[in-house]
Amino acid sequence: MKFLYILLALAAGIMMPVQAGINALLGAQIKSPIMAAAVSFTVGAAFLILLCIMLRIPAPAMSLWGKLPLWMWTGGLLGAFFVTTTIILAPKLGAVTLLASLITAQMTASIILDHYGLIGYPVQPVSTGRILGVIFLILGVLLVQRY
């Protein structure tokens, strides 16, 4: 089963530069990266709502909403920042430099999140191999930026 999860993660990873490129072209056409991000999130939200209706996924009880910690509401804000940033940077950096930079930052943050078991991640202590992996990613960013 873990192999299927990895394949799903790889598929999602493939979609990242495609999404950034599509959204950047949309932003250029409508002359606003922020509006392009809004369009992207609106289409995505509409799809997810339709999917919930089609799969008959019940909405959580209204009493639950007020009990959630405030930080749990920031996911959408972080997503909006991410998508808007990729719309702005994709035409300036290109797909390889953009994604190499994103992945390096994601891996660096992930090591910290895993090490301390933050925001629900299982604790996975920092190791030499993980640190070397991030160092190689940083070197990769430098190489793809240069060549």
Q: What this model shows, in words?
A:
The protein contains 6 helices and no strands. The termini are far apart. The radius of gyration is 18 Å and the shape is globular. α1 (2-30) packs across α2 (33-54). The protein has 147 residues and is mainly α. It is 78% helix and 0% strand. It has helices spanning 2-30, 33-54, 62-65, 75-93, 95-116, 128-146.
**Rg for CA atoms:** 18 Å
Span from first to last CA? 38 Å
Provide mean pLDDT, rounded: 94
User: Uncertain regions: pLDDT < 50 for 5+ in a row?
Assistant: none
Gross morphology is globular
Describe how the helices and strands are arranged.
Layout: H1 2-30, H2 33-54, H3 62-65, H4 75-93, H5 95-116, H6 128-146
Helix pairs in contact: 1-2, 1-4, 1-5, 2-4, 4-5, 5-6
Question: Can you tag this structure with a few keywords?
Answer:
147 residues; mainly alpha; 6 helices
In short:
The chain is mainly alpha-helical.
